[in-house]
Specification:
single chain; about 35% helix; disordered C terminus
Length: about 350
């Protein structure tokens, strides 16, 4: 079957020819009887059929109400998504703020509670100079309190020997005699129980062992005399016995101690600058001079159970304190005349 060009419908002479379907021979009879032929334009003289396209159920156009409902649902989803993003941002921001606050509090707490000895260790116990002098890092022994030894006579101190009342030596805190010593550099033995009272008042004590060599001892004494001019919260004295752990020089303040094998002016100065009048329960009670404190002169200032060596046996001749006085230092001086806190 094919298509052929046919004259205009109804035998009209005018008009456009149409394309008609070529019929098989058996159908030519009906065509000769005048029945119109089919064309792409439909029946002759009739407009082509225009049937609406078939649309699936799920593709049917939405009504106005349905479109409005769909827009509202879309808007609601958009708002909910924005709200979720906002909540996430707030949660993240709150978490970051909380972490920052915790970090700040942690750092502040550490700096507040960190023992000053750690800072001092960075100054004196870890430096190359301190290591060369054989110095330990600054230690912070336990606080043993600040009570006074309740005695009426010096002889009663025999029951409170330093080795019995101080768990660490040279002592950095603990019970002590009610008297104290004037600022100065002394080439004499000075009782440890006296100088703990000075520590309570903010002093630094530079102990030197009887085993310290003469050259090092002289360097320490000269440093002490010079340092006192700027920092009167200082006492240099000979320890009544060898220092612990084989140390030759020991620097102590309330709650802090550093032992060294040799004297070094830089290490000593760093310890003094860090702790002078900065530690102790009563850091502003001093400094003391010979008007209110004991001043070792030609004799050692020690109390029972120690016995003063005969003949003023010390490391050398008596050295005056910072005020240049040579006050007495016998056993009877510290029974309690220098009363104080």
């Amino acid at each position: 079957m094919g298509w052929v060009v046919a004259p205009p419908c109804g035998g009209q002479r005018r008009g456009r020819p149409v394309l008609v379907e070529a019929l098989p021979p058996q159908r030519w009879a009906s065509t000769l009887r005048g029945e119109p032929a089919r064309s792409r334009a439909g029946q002759c003289g009739q407009p082509p059929s225009r049937k609406p396209p078939v649309v699936a159920d799920d593709e049917q156009p939405l009504s106005k109400r349905e479109r409005q409902k769909q827009r509202r649902a879309s808007k609601r989803e958009t708002q909910q998504a924005a709200a979720r993003r906002q909540r996430i941002r707030k949660t993240v921001a709150s978490g970051l703020v909380a972490l920052i606050v915790i970090a700040v509090i942690g750092v502040a707490g550490y700096l507040w509670q960190r023992p000053p000895a750690e800072e001092s260790a960075a100054l004196g116990g870890e430096s190359e100079t301190a290591q060369a002098a054989g110095c330990d890092a600054v230690a912070q022994p336990p606080d043993l309190g600040s009570d006074h030894l309740q005695v009426q006579q010096p002889s009663e101190l025999a029951d409170s020997a330093p080795a019995d009342i101080y768990g660490h030596r040279p002592a950095t805190s603990g019970p002590h005699i009610s008297a104290w010593v004037a600022t100065g550099v002394y080439e004499r033995h000075v009782d440890e129980r006296l100088l703990v009272h000075n520590l309570e008042h903010g002093y630094v004590v530079a102990w030197y062992s009887p085993e310290l060599g003469d050259q090092q001892r002289q360097a320490l004494l000269e440093w002490g005399r010079s340092a006192i001019e700027d920092t009167p919260y200082l006492i240099v004295a000979q320890y009544p016995e060898p220092l612990p752990d084989g140390g030759k020089v020991g620097y102590v303040a309330w709650g802090h101690r550093q032992l060294c094998d040799d004297f070094d002016a830089e290490v000593a100065g760093e310890f003094l600058d860090r702790f002078a009048n900065a530690e102790g329960p009563e850091p502003n009670a001093g400094p003391h001079d010979d008007s209110d404190g004991l001043t070792p002169g030609q004799e050692n200032v020690v109390f029972p159970p120690f016995e003063p060596p005969s003949g003023g046996e010390g490391s050398g001749s008596g050295d005056s304190g910072s005020q240049g006085s040579t006050g007495s230092g016998s056993q009877g001086d510290a029974s309690g005349e220098a009363s104080g806190s």
